Amino acid sequence: MIESGGRIEQETRLWNVAAGRTEPMRSKEFAHDYRYFPEPDLLPVRVTPAWKGEILREMPELPDARRERFRRDFGITSYDAGVLTATRDLADYFEAVVRAGAPAKAASNWIQTEVLRRVKDIENELGKAPPPSELAKLIKLVDEGQLTANSGKKLLEKVFEMMMAGLGVGLDVITLADASGLRQIKDTNEIERLCREVIEKNPDNVAKYRAGNEGVFKFFVGQVMRASRGQANPQTVNGTLKRLLS
What we know:
By secondary structure, this protein is mostly helical. It is built from twelve helices and two strands.
């Protein structure tokens, strides 16, 4: 109003809900009507440019700037960046996982859907989450197809159990994955052996498939995955079954 040449009236205004604006309620002619008075105990604060510059240099990256950087540098959505910067510890954890080699988008998804869900169950203690380096290894195993997504979740559950039991020192998820039998079978000879066994045990379904009932194919895939305890590479299983059934 001042910049447009208007004059500010000293008055109390009310909010008109229906109109969505403020309106005059009652006027006040002088400043003392507002009961203003100086605060004698407050000394003036003089901020020099040098002091302001020093403060700015020492300040950590603030949440808004960090959200924008996450969105820009890691290619994640604004929503995901908002979740991951909800606390400084969580943002630091996410960046540490990415620095350890995990793809940023995959790390974002795993932390939000799997890690935070389990952390919530243990009173939001992020310190009980897997070390960033180990979570990065797990994510890479899934991303490279060495673990199925389901096996990755099972492995993460085992890691959380070890962390809760105080056994996190020396933890290595690759060793744990092998010891738990969770690593995906990619050996084509082994997968072909399993496929042949399933085909030999189900001649009736073989006949149905070869007669044009392609829906039976899912049965064979399911049986091979069951025989491999979910460890066989699904793409290899599909390709091998199609070749053997043709």
